Amino acid sequence: MDNILKIENLKTHFFTKNGILKAVDDISFNIKRGEIVGLVGESGSGKSITGFSIMGLIDAPGKIVSGNILFNNHPLLNYTPDQMRNLRGNKLAMIFQDPMMTLNPVLRIDTQMIETIKAHDKTISVRNAFEIARDTLGLVGISSPEERMKAYPHQFSGGMRQRVSIAIAMLNKPDLIIADEPTTALDVTIQGQVIYEMQELCKKTGTALLWITHDLAVVAGIASRICVMYAGRIVEQGSVKEIINNPMHPYTIGLIKSVPSQNKRGEPLHQIEGMVPSMLNLPDGCAFHDRCNQATNNCKNSKPLETNFSKTRVIRCFNFER
């Protein structure tokens, strides 16, 4: 399979009055055509900023300071603003955690969806665009989609607005969808339906999907590979089976043990000791060392480099479990 997306040593920093915040600090991974990759980590680990960096949505005081983002072998960092606008919503789409980042509050849903289609296909008729939009709304579980097309965003619940934003991302069958916590506001039944439809989209059209989440249970059910992120860095990559059944990085092990289903009934829930360090004041060595029960002096003084443990497994740790 060809790589739809290849990220090489990406660094996205925010230059604030209090110092440099290294939100994304030297990460590398790729996504192949039709593949679903999960990007997992605690809040504040840099997952969403990774998505915004790919989409070209980093504004001052933020800046991509180095690295490459290759989309269909084209370097996105060389694209002009106009080229990025033509790409977004067409070949490259994003589902935001807050649906109101996608939806215009003063336009009806049909207007917004039809404009999204016609912006990238001038030849399509309004009627055909309406039918595509209506059918896509039905796919994400909105009943009576033809009627609901005439509504405004404020007439939908938060969960329904999120389903509309998911439908908009799916409209043009993009090469890559970046989904930032897309099902957090949805109930379990609709969540399952949306995940199924997105999996089917990837299978049928070859669309690749980067699923950003803190929920290991969801990503284990949808993704084929997982990248685990901590304090701006990817600390472990591998297949879902490898990561879930045989985690090697101490942080990944802690995350999996923290899933409630991993705890015996009646016993206290497992938690990772300590707090995530401030991204403005990261320690000299491994950012996880003061929460890690395997840390040595080497971990405190030196940053671990990526180790290719196997063809599919990448670890950033001095003392990972084999």
Q: What structural keywords apply?
A:
24% strand, alpha/beta, 8-stranded mixed sheet, 11 helices, 4-stranded antiparallel sheet, single chain, 322 residues
Structure description:
It is built from eleven helices and twelve strands. With 322 residues, it is of the alpha/beta class. Helix 4 (126-139) packs across helix 6 (158-170). The longest helix is centred in the middle third of the chain and has 18 residues, at 188-205. It starts with a strand and ends in a 7-residue tail after the last strand. The mean pLDDT is 90.
Record the strand order, biggest sheet.
6-7-8-3-9-10-12-11
Overall geometry: globular
- List the total number of helices: 11
Biggest sheet, in brief?
8 strands, mixed
> Helical residue percent?
25-40%
Please indicate the percent range of residues in DSSP E strands (runs of 2 or more): 15-25%
Report mean pLDDT, rounded to a whole number.
90
Terminus-to-terminus distance: 29 Å
Decide which structural class fits the backbone. Answer: alpha/beta
Radius of gyration: 20 Å
SSE arrangement, N to C: EEEHEEHEHHHHEHEHEEHHHEE
